[in-house]
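Hey, I'm writing a tutorial for new members on how sequence and structure tokens pair up, and I'd like a real worked example in the thread rather than a made-up one. If someone can provide the structure for the chain below, I'll link this post from the tutorial.
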Amino acid sequence: MNAVVLKAGRDKAVRNRHHWIFSGAIRDLPEFEDGAILPVRDARGELLGHGYFNRKSSITGRMVSFGDEPPEAAVRRGLDRALALRAGFFDPALTTARRLVNAEGDGLPGLIADLYGDVLVLQIATLGMEKLKPLVVEHLVRALKPRAVLERSDLPARREEGLEDAEGVLAGQPVERVRILENGVSFWVGLARGQKTGFYLDQRESRALVRRVAAGRRLLNAFAYTGSFSVCALLGGAVRADSVDTSEAALALAQENFELNGLPSDAGAFFAQDVFEFLREPALDHDFIILDPPAFAKKRTDVVAACRGYKDINRLALQRVRTPGLVLTFSCSHFVDEVLFQQVVFQAAREAGRRVRILQKHRQAFDHPVNIYHPETAYLKGFLLYVD
């Protein structure tokens, strides 16, 4: 039988439309080339759907269709549904950048697609989706007619899949950077290098929050990247916004984003330093601190060390912030869930000896949907803390 057959009693996740199949759930594998799409059947032979498979990966299979829907038709339909979901939520006069495809969140494992104006940027994490890339590019080009399609597949996950990093132009001409609007605020986005596909689109709602609550405050934007939180704070009436990041190139673009929005050069300082070290230095006068670090837990075995890092950075911020003040703190580590992250912040507050209350909770922007059948697509969580 040219199909993947699951062990008896190990088909529940797939029946519940979860996309991942681990090696321990598989009874029989046919002969196949890694990355190929295969039918998936239960132990009695019932067809459950189709997935692509890679014996090199700890997640051996990823479902692309359920039931009897042909897999390529399911991918095309998934792309159309993802585009339709975003179509009614954005005013193009105010916001010109958005996520179009959020991997399993849109039923398309291994695929991220972000649109910056008329430039489409793809990130492909898996061998199976790599083999589907021509179909994906053809379909999205026909639907969107972008000026260019770029690839930024520089992910650790690719190495587990047996793939090398891939960056370049898939269609159109090279584009180094592009100017976008987000809720009427302008930003330069570097597309050739930098974090993710160039910009943290998942923090859109959090940036709007900062603009609402920053009036009269002195902000410290830690892990500032290209300064988007700093810009929004100043446009919201902050007295000052200082930015700290280890990347001098990112901070140079942050300064350009100040200029782009007509903000004076002395509205904030830019520190190319390690945030942990910076927070241990003699305190500047900040009553609003934002902590948006990279993921400290890349895999499940990193969780203990990651929680130690999150506790330390939050304790330092809570000790340093002038009261009454605000701390907006985030974790984008999937393996550190909201309950665990709140416990870590509680421990940090105890050690800092500060009175801390949660004003709001935050998650990734709504164009980064969480698949109810695949809860692993929830990764970003944050708390707005009041410290007195």
